[in-house]
Amino acid sequence: VIAMEQLQVSAERRSSMALLPGIIDRPRQTFTTLLATPRWRWVLPLLLCILALALVSAATADFASEQARQQQAQAMSQMQAQLDSMPEAQREQTQRLLDRTTSPVFVGGISFITRGLGLPIAWLIGTAILYFGLAIGGTELKFSALFSAFSWTWLPFALRDFLQAVWTLATDQPLRNPGLSYFVATGDLLADSRNPVYALTSLLDLFFVWHIVLVYFLIKAAKQRGGAFGLTVAYTLLYLLLRFLPVLLSSRLAFNPGG
């Protein structure tokens, strides 16, 4: 008991920054420490994710704005008859509204806000999946401790955003067709944005694989006995399904507006 208490005190004295390199070379040991001393451990991943998100939103704002304008133009061309029937003043007002909502500041700001707000929600959902999966397997764990440790599995995505920002600033070109979406991209921005297969394959890259590997080691650190492979597979499938469904539903609504 004394040895365990000494180990916990030693872990508590280690800062989150000191634990950060362990995500690369000692992931299971790092997650064991995070689960044992979870208080405020989520702060560092949150700050890194928000910083990387701000950088990539700012770096890609001009390109995202241009893409939004192209998508808007394609959508408006399909509604040309309705536009022609509008009074001139209403058409001008509509055009001014479209110009504002496709400006770099607006598009970049909306991207930052929506992804920033979605971050803790994603962490809560991911933590819930693992929490109930572990509970079914007989592992008792505090939800708050698991949440704090799970936030560290998101660090690969922060690194991805940071590298994407660096790439965009260095090459003056955005990263088009991320992940495996290159193999299903049509070149039609509007069609690709509504294609569920494109959305799904865009998630599949090395950073996603790294995230799943970290989830596996988190489960290994949490479980007293038994394997972690099954729960990792279940988490992966649920993660992809939750990311896939919104695009699928929006594509259905887009092509069947009348229900």
Describe the structure.
This protein is mainly alpha-helical. It contains 15 helices and no strands. The chain has helices at 2-13, 16-19, 22-25, 27-36, 43-59, 61-77, 80-84, 88-101, 104-136, 143-150, 155-171, 189-193, 196-202, 206-222, 229-255. α5 (43-59) packs parallel to α11 (155-171), α6 (61-77) packs across α9 and α9 packs across α15. It is elongated, with a radius of gyration of 22 Å.
Question: Summarize this, please?
Answer:
The chain is mostly helical.
Secondary structure layout:
Layout lengths: L1 H12 L2 H4 L2 H4 L1 H10 L6 H17 L1 H17 L2 H5 L3 H14 L2 H33 L6 H8 L4 H17 L17 H5 L2 H7 L3 H17 L6 H27 L4
Task: Please name the defining characteristics of this protein.
259 residues, mainly alpha, 15 helices, disordered N terminus
Number of strands: 0
- What is the C-alpha radius of gyration, as a whole number of Å? 22 Å
Strand content is under 5%
H/E series: HHHHHHHHHHHHHHH
Question: Helicity, in percent?
Answer: over 70%
Structural class comes to mainly alpha
Task: Please give the alpha-carbon distance between the first and last residues.
Answer: 63 Å
How many alpha or pi helices?
A: 15
How would a crystallographer describe the biggest sheet?
Answer: none
Low-confidence stretches: 1-7, 254-259
- Give the overall average pLDDT: 84
What gross morphology would you assign? elongated
